[in-house]
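Notes continue from the previous slide.

Worked example: a multi-chain complex. Inputs as given:
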Amino acid sequence: MSEPRHKSIDEQLAYIHKGAAEIIPETELRAKLEQSAKSGKPLRVYLGVDPTAPDLHLGHTVVLRKLKHFQDMGHTAIFLIGDFSAMIGDPTGQSETRPPLSREQVDANAQTYLAQVYKILDPEKTEVRYNSEWLGKMSSYDVVRLCGHYRLARMLEREDFRSRLEKNLPISVHELLYPLLTACDAVELKSDVELGATEQKFNILVHREIQREYGLSPQVVFTMPILVGLDGAKKMSKSLGNYVGINEPPKDMFGKLMSISDDLMWSYYELLTDFAPPVIVRLKEEVRTGVLHPMDAKMQLAHTIIANFHGEAAARSARDEFQRVFRDRQSPEDAPVRKLPRGAPKRLSALLVELNLAPSRAEAERLIKQGGVEIDGQRVDDVKHEIDLSRPGSRFLLRAGKKKFLRIIVD
RNA sequence: GGACGGGUGGGUGAGUGGCUAAAACCAGCAGACUGUAAAUCUGCCGCUCCUUGCGGGCUACGGAGGUUCGAAUCCUCCCCCGUCCA
């Protein structure tokens, strides 16, 4: 471990502050930073995740990026994989007990998870832990003791529980255990700061209190806002389909990012880029006064985010491609290629389903009828249209809807 | 354990024997307009077959049986959720 080059406390705080939703208590963070500077002992900062959704999207990166900020300043970033707590599942309103993940599943998930996380964090400097390490060893006696440290009334203060009680929705007892068990992580890790999205605030606060119960110096609660998804309304999530995956091809990322609303772009600037706050303010002002076209601001945003994950060159080519296809209305240069076996003519609608461009024949036909399908730039709205698959080597460009292109080659 | 209320399409939620593939709203999709933005307008929105027609078939209102020419709607049993009482 090389000696970290500490910035001044004020500089650190300013850097850390960007995008933060809440820091509780703020004064304690400063005190801890000062203490750390004095003793040369880095702060222990952790982020806990359930390894249940191994495909990361930009929403996950908000908090990861914050963890990286701490790491960049020489503090210890701890990435905690909640392999044990995942089987309880964080209360979500429809919570069910999930079957425990097998060791193999956990390992596999953790590997794909980490591979993605390391696109942001420095693998050399990241401490990775699994909470089955200690939670798996607890006896029921330990659990009872743990529960003794917290009151039901406090537990029911949680917004999610309260609203479910009000709405007469079910709350399972095991859900109450989630914040308590994960508190053991904070105790075990002796963390100074715990990061999380705002929806984790309650849990992290419980962790803080339990740490105190166990005689530790309580951690600082550090929350980041939830990233709003592409629809501009709901939280970014895979199930809502309003997400940008960090492993997606640069071109897809570009298209998706360009489709966000102008208003939303600013929170993306704040939460997904390292642009300094004053720079963002200036951009915003330029757009407001008409000096900068909002689309150009958005392109810069998309470019910056993509460069983070795929590098500068890929970002640039995604941008060029975007302009070619959507501004200049030319066909995409490198649409994904699909080979089809030679054979009898096939209905276009059947082909769309076969190629996963439509979920069902009915929808494929609808798409065609409504003029959403093009072959080599020509709209095809005849439901009965058949595709000739008899000549080997023949090729055409198929477009289904706004964004989906496939280059078809007959084998 | 008892009393009562409830379980409808991706979501909210109408519907109490046929006119209901099931109102309405939201979400979603396509087209127009654009900056592949937002807003707006138009259309679509269970699956499937073909002769693409206000066409045929199949599946669908927690589950399983039953009554009926006909059931999301009535009956029986079961499962699940909530409230109150203990």
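Summary box: Chain A has three domains: 9-224, 250-327, 337-410. The two ends of chain A are 57 Å apart (CA to CA).
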